[in-house]
Amino acid sequence: MNLLEPKTQFRPRATLQVTEVRGGATASSTAPFSPLEAVRLTLAGLGEAELRPVASPKAGLAFQPRALLAVTLYCYLHEIYGSEDIENALRRDVLFRELCQQEFPDARLIRRFRRQNRDPLQRALTTALQLSLPPEFPHAVVVEEARSRIGTAMFIDSMESAD
Q: Which residues are CB-contacts of 36 (< 8 A; sequence separation ≥ 6)?
């Protein structure tokens, strides 16, 4: 499996014209968006100061907060939750390896990023889910789904590190 193989059953079904996305990013296409487009729009509305770095500013592209958030959101949208699963998916993804010059974050760094950026990750995942799900999903359901996905990731990681 690579990152381009979705593990989710969510597929765009309905359309809704979106002219503004939370955080100020604008879009002229219709929602629900693909997971990739939802991540792109979510990141466009995110302020740079909202994320805490977990690696040196001189580290490669894959270690920068926005890249880590993008990868984490994309994986969570595709129901890939465990940090080791995310690391393995990144290692197998040819395009990601080329883009990041064969450097990718390990599971420990992904877990640290999630811990230190839990609130921005929660908000970003909620926004990305809202953009990728049909518009009839109530906001409260989307918020709970985001919490559930982050909780699932934490549970999986706690089981992996217990081995």
A: 74
Residues spanned by the domain of 40: 16-161
41 contact partners, CB below 8 Å, separation of at least 6 = 21, 25, 27, 33, 127, 128, 131
32 preceded by a cis bond (ω within 30 of 0):
yes
pLDDT band at 73 (very low <50, low <70, confident <90, very high): very high
| Total structural domains within the chain | 1
- pLDDT band for 162, please (50, 70, 90 cuts): low
Query: What are the DSSP E strand ranges found in the chain?
Result: 16-17, 30-31
**Cβ neighbours, 10 Å, residue 18:** 19
